[in-house]
Design brief:
118 residues, mainly alpha, 6 helices, 0% strand
Length: 118
């Protein structure tokens, strides 16, 4: 299996997991993070920075990115990769903070974020 097949499989699992709660994904952020992992933490961090720069202005897309970070944190924890899990946890909290700072006065964005991530 090549990295793109791996990414597609990982994205499909993420999509199915969220679909169980009625949420339909509209990004490939989980798959993108899966590809980035092939390059280690620096690849994941570069992906994080790129998403932050490109998608923080779209509260729905960025909400989905925060969910992908959270799922990656738990996925690696379940695999016993606690160092990588902690790395994702730190990125999750940074992304959550960036979201809350950007949208602190936007009731629509905050309502969406908390409803979807709850």
């Amino acid at each position: 299996m090549n990295v793109f097949q791996y990414s597609a499989n990982e994205q499909a699992k993420f999509d199915m997991t969220l679909a169980q709660s009625g949420y339909k994904t509209f990004t490939t952020f989980f798959g993108d993070l899966s590809i980035a992992e092939c390059y280690g933490k620096s690849g994941v961090e570069d992906t994080y920075k790129n998403v932050l720069a490109s998608w923080l202005g779209d509260y729905k897309y960025f909400t989905e990115f925060v969910m992908a970070l959270n799922h990656k944190c738990w996925e690696w924890y379940d695999f016993g990769e606690h160092e990588l899990s902690k790395f994702y946890q730190d990125l999750f909290y940074k992304a959550q903070e960036a979201f809350e700072k950007k949208y602190k006065n936007d009731e629509e964005a905050l309502s969406y974020y908390y409803r979807v991530t709850d």
